[in-house]
Amino acid sequence: MTTSIGIELNPPARLLMGAGPANVSPRVLRAMTAPLLGYLDPDFVKIMDDVAVMLRQVFGTKEGFTFPVSGTGSAGMEAGLANLLEPGDTAVVLEGGFFGERLAEIAGRLGATVISVKGQWGAPADLDQVRKAVKAQPKVKLIAAVHAETSTGVLQPLKELGQLAREHDALLLVDTVTSLGANHVDVDAVGIDYTFSATQKCIGAPPGLAPCALSPRAMEAIAKRTTKPYTWYLDIGLLRRYWEGGQRVYHHTAPMSMVYALHEALRMAFEEGLENRYARHRRNGRALRTGLEALGLKLLVPESSCLYQITAVHIPAGIDDMAFRTALLRQYNVEIGGGLGQFRGKVWRIGLMGESSTAANALYLLSAFEALLPRHGFEAPAGAGVAAASRALAAEK
After folding, report:
1. Which of 33, 168, 237, 283 is 20 to 30 A from 247 via CA?
2. How many beta carbons lie within 10 A of that of residue 157, not counting itself?
3. Is there a single domain that holds both residue 172 and residue 68?
4. 86 and 225 in contact (C-beta within 8 Å)?
């Protein structure tokens, strides 16, 4: 008797318009099928060096150390906090969404004294509150913030935070998971000491790596630690010996196929041109916002502080969140995201990130909304969303 184990691997091709992952170019997927090399093979080392060079340009740093952590964006978050904070250090954390709260949670688990500046979900942090929190402490080791809050679609200004950190001789840690590849990050100009991102959003690769950038100040702080980081796997001092320098020292087996994917995605970003890429995300996001408002839907974040790659929309009264998103998935093959934390069941999060950020995708989603909303009890003006978005796109040309 023959028994089979496991189902046949045949996942459907979805249009991914949630908060991540986004769709990936066939070029990036093909890169992942390239032959594997040893983790210290000189030809793989060349690819590693090339990735680091391209990451420096995307992050906007000339002197920083850049490399991808083997893991998703949360691994990049934990790596930064675990290496820069020691037990008893004070960290001021801006909490204005789900991932700001995660920063505070991890910092607290590391034994740091966490001063949380709790802000309104859906709005940037109040910088006066941040200043007061920092000034109230005798010594702040770290200020931590989310540049692009994925749970709300808010873009947090960074320039003032960089100035504040320098005034108080504190390190600045920034989550750029959803901004890198769609917004200027400008590590050197802002004065960011540690930032981390993720490959599956606006960079345009599958999930699995967390690109990071560290300033010389951050590397100095790591070198001066009085205790070793609690984590061996995410010890940046050890990882640097593998990712940088002439004599590489084995740390762990790098996920070669993911490094290939990141390399190809970065090449594609530079072929497009970073400014063109930022403009594409802005143009398509504006069109989507215009179309959603034309349908009578309420957006969570005003344009003055919004992310164009993630748009949070209030779910109209009477519509069942899961029933609507399931219908969108089954009838139109489109995935959008639900709310997180206090917005669970209250907002939809629509992503136009990386490969998924196209005018055609924005118009297709609006067309699907025009058809589905009335079936779920919300009377949207027929054709209004697509027409408004089309006008917005035409005006941008």
Report:
1. 33
2. 14
3. yes
4. yes
Alpha-carbon distance 309 to 138, whole Å? 39
Angle formed at CA 308 by CA 17 and CA 335, multiple of 5 degrees: 10
Distance CA 219, CA 222 (A): 5
Report the CATH number that the domain containing residue 302 is assigned in CATH: 3.90.1150.10
The domain boundary, picked from 255, 270, 285, lies at 270
Query: How many CA atoms, within 13 angstroms, populate the side-chain half-sphere of residue 13?
Result: 4
Q: Which of 270, 286, 310 is the last residue of a domain?
A: 270
Same domain for 111 and 124, yes or no, is yes
| Mean local confidence (pLDDT), 256-260 | 98
pLDDT tens-digit readout, 268-287: 999 999 999 999 999 999 99
Q: What is the pTM of this model?
A: 0.96
Residue 21 lies in a domain: no
Domain ranges, residue 169: 26-270
Preceding amide of 21 cis, omega within 30: yes
The model's confidence at residue 2, banded by pLDDT at 50, 70 and 90, is low
Whether 1 maps to a domain, the answer reads no
